[in-house]
Design brief:
The chain is α+β, with helices and mostly antiparallel strands and 148 residues long. The protein has a domain of 99 residues: Immunoglobulin-like (Sandwich). The protein is built from 1 helix and 8 strands; from the N terminus they run H-E-E-E-E-E-E-E-E. The chain has a 4-stranded antiparallel beta sheet, with no helix packed on it. The protein has a 4-stranded mixed beta sheet with strand order 2-8-7-4, with no helix packed on it. A hairpin with a 5-residue loop joins strand 7 and strand 8. The longest helix has 29 residues.
Length: 148
């Protein structure tokens, strides 16, 4: 008798777990966040070496579930991103601020920022580009001795 009761408890328990998991899968398929950017590329044009060139990429969650940015990674150390860390509710907006350090980097550049998120597609690539004009070096002052 104890074995039958134990067997029934196990069957009911497994049935409940299976039913619960089926509901979770169904809900997660219906709820999906979706990220849409105003722009995915920014061209700084020409600017002088040494400037911290900054732009903001604004986005909106057009899905029906909260959007979370899991990672925002630049292609090199000369580019620094900061972004909305809290989940972005459906219909709400967030932003990714990108700063390019041009010090010691004259010439043309193109950098990529990889955005990993929990929404449709999972990954978006943003790009910045521009041309850094070499800073003019001030001439060294010449010191003349009083004897000359």
């Amino acid at each position: 008798m104890k074995q039958i009761v134990l067997l029934l408890a196990v069957i009911v328990g497994l049935g409940t777990i299976g039913f619960t998991n089926a509901q979770k899968i169904e809900i997660s398929q219906d709820a999906m966040s979706k990220i849409e950017f105003e722009k995915k590329t920014h061209d700084f044009g020409e600017f002088e070496e040494g400037i911290q060139a900054t732009t903001v990429f604004k986005f909106k969650n057009t899905g029906n579930a909260p959007l979370v940015l899991n990672a925002v990674t630049p292609s090199c150390g000369c580019t620094s991103p900061s972004w909305t860390k809290e989940p972005v509710a459906p219909g709400e907006e967030g932003e990714i601020k990108v700063v390019y350090n041009s010090k010691g980097r004259p010439g043309q550049f193109t950098k990529t920022i990889t955005v990993k998120h929990n929404g449709e597609g999972g990954t978006v690539f943003l790009n910045i580009r521009g041309v850094v004009k070499k800073a003019e070096v001030a001439p060294e002052p010449t010191v003349k001795s009083p004897e000359n």
